[in-house]
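tool_call: predict_structure(chain=1)
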Amino acid sequence: MDLNLRNKLVLVVGASKGIGRAIAMGFASEGCRLVAIARSPELLEELKADAMKGGAESADTIVCDIMECNTQEFAENLLDRFGVFDVVVHNVGGSLISRNHLGGAEDWNYALKFNAVAAIDMNSKLIPPMIERGSGRVIHISSISAEMLRGNPLYASAKAFLNAYVTTVGRQLAPTGVLMCSVMLGAVAFEGSYWDKFVKEGNPRVDDFLRHHQAANRFGSPEEIANVVLFMASDKSSFMQAANIPVDGANM
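tool_result:
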């Protein structure tokens, strides 16, 4: 299937490893002009070299910690430097945050910013020029926890907020030519991931989790997530506005 992504200008936030790297490399293989954001300069340099070898038309990298910068100002600087993006992928957030369900506003606000609001703040600057042009794709990496409401309460709640944002704002964007969606991950294993150490240790909780919660009886791979993101970035997804899409091995 020809996704018609060649020469598209693609921003991937959180691109240096795991799922983000797989997404970036997927766009590289489609001949896109890639802009990759992450915290690690070393990993970004490796990504840039691999992306160019992998077929990217161009590959630019920017070192930035989204949690430590003015995200609106950062987004404006990106627009000034690169122009209007065709595709924006927000691969930001995670469950390795406070697990204190009775924590105060500081804990909950951090979880919310990390998993949703930092990306939303960037969107406030990145989306209006897409609307003016009449086209664009904005893809958020969410989690099946948003629907299952299982695991870390702060993480699940933040991703549920993100999904509600995608649904409500995505509906408003639908007639403009800008498609917003989220890809809701299930359990994905890769080097350095949450499950990676348990797999390597032969921890019995792995088999228990797969048996009780993964109908596919295995973990997903970053490439399987990237494939869905690339499809949603293409014109083939043109009737999937405001969708929160599970990619989770039939999580249960």
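agent: The chain has nine helices and seven strands. Proceeding to next step.
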